[in-house]
Amino acid sequence: MNLFSCSNLNKKYRKGNFSLQNISLELRTGEITGVVGENGNGKTTLLRIIAGDLAHDNGMLNYFGNNEVNVLSWENIRSRVAYIPQRIPQWYGTLRNNLVFQASIRGIKGKDADFHVDELLEKLALTEYAPLKWSEISTGYRLRFQLAKMLLINPELLVLDEPIANLDINAQGKFLSDLRAIVSEKKRKVSVILSSQQLHEIENVADAIVFLRKGEMIYSGEVGKIGETRTDNEFEIQTSLSETEIRSLFANILLNAHGKTLHVKVPLQITAEHFVTEVIKKGGTIHYFRDISSSTRRLFND
Question: How many domains in the chain?
Answer without folding.
Answer: 2
